[in-house]
Design brief:
The complex is a heterodimer of chains A (about 300) and B (about 150). By secondary structure, chain A is of the alpha/beta class. Chain A has helices at about 10-25, 50-60, 75, 80-90, 105-110, 130-140, 160-170, 190-195, 230-235, 280-295, and strands spanning about 40-45, 65-70, 95-100, 115-120, 150-155, 175-180, 200-205, 215-220, 255. Chain A has a 5-stranded parallel β-sheet, covered by helices on one side. A 4-stranded parallel β-sheet of chain A has the order 2-1-3-4, sandwiched between helices. The radius of gyration of chain A is 19 Å and the shape is globular. Chain B is an alpha+beta fold and about 150 residues long. In chain B, helix 2 runs antiparallel to helix 3. The radius of gyration of chain B is 16 Å and the shape is elongated. Classes of the chains: A alpha/beta (about 300), B alpha+beta (about 150). The interface of A and B includes residues 6, 83 and 189 of A. The complex binds zinc ion. Zinc ion (ZN) binds near residues 110, 115 and 138 of chain B.
Chain lengths: ~300, ~150
Amino acid sequence: MNNLISMRDLSKEDIMRLMDIAAKIEKGEIVPNMQRKLAALLFFEPSTRTMFSFDTAMKRMNGDTIIMSGTQNTSAKKGETFADTLQTIAQYSDIIIMRSPIEGAARYAAEVVDIPVVNAGDGANQHPTQALLDMYSIIKTQGKLDNLKIGLAGDLRFGRTVHSLAQAMAVFGAQFKFISPSFLQMPEYIKDDLTEQNIKFEELKEMEGNIDDLDILYVTRIQKERFADPEDYEKVKGSYVLNKAMLENAKENFKVLHPLPRVDEIHTDVDDTEYAYYFPQAKNGVYTRQAIISILLGEV
Amino acid sequence: MNQVKTIKVNAIKNGTVIDHIAAGKILKVIDILNLTGDNSVMVGMNLASNKIGKKDIIKIENRELSKQEVNSIAIIAPSATLIIIKDFEVVNKSQLEIPEYIEEHIICPNPKCITNSENISSKYYINNSKTASARCLYCEKKYLVEDLKIKI
Ligand SMILES: [Zn+2]
């Protein structure tokens, strides 16, 4: 593995190796040392949480970071090409971790520079480190990735997180329940991919009554701005808010995941239940990102 | 009838004939070939064809096509036949095939794709087994081959 650009590039074996290394890092069985290593965090689109998670991962391994953050690439204003910006940054650092609103930006960056590139999100396309930390959370709580029943709820149309996760878990034979308003359904191209792989999925309109047979429920936020008419939002919003009462008959191993930040799609009364796993999930993100950086820099 | 056809095809001494281009696509083919004026060119449009109904045809004297050009033409005119002429004889005749991988001449239809904001050519992997669908190497969006735009 030279770069991490898309979940589509990873084999089942790559994923399992990464899970294993993340687990060993968490248990302290592997202690990667990134002293004198510098990660360039290029965030051409703001995402404080993802940036902090990478920053923490690097610093937990005694490494350091340089950060370029903002909606506008400052060099681009001066007329410098994207390729030149990347080439220059690559002279200073050992690894580039990049978030961009432009789809394919990380793939292009990996072609331009000769240090490893990690895609920290490229537009609506991919966010592989999120998918991997989600999978690490799944394997930790379920003891396996194979043959699980997974509910994905909320905005399934624009959420790249749920796209990557669905594609990745399909490889492990997951069954899905897609729970969303009709105009925020899983895109056709994802459903086509699943159908080609003989993966079973149902499309549903509400959370209530659809939870009891799930191993994992992955909740995402529905943004009010997606609705043309605010009244429509008010009408459907209740169907996509998870509360404690809905979890009465949940399976013992059942867990609720959420990429965070949460607004009101998971009621705070879920937080104290044994099913809530979204905060540990964020912590898992650090171990997963430590594992990714270590593998790419050849430290493990 | 056969004789007429033969005369048409053999009307150049050396060069390339592209036959069975779907009617109306010839102008795009000409654009791809970037014909600068050194070669004699004959063009036929809206001719009757048993194979595809109405066809366009082009004959170019003293010109061989590059692999890249052939691939690009295959994208916009997959029904076309490529004929190589030497000394008035047909020395090779082949049905164009949509390539598995194309690098030039394609504009990714996704406006958010890096290939539309940086000056780089998009690259497509084409899976033409059943659906003739293509996936952009960069933005990973899938399109039908017939929906891809050709960059001139
Ligand atoms: Zn593209």
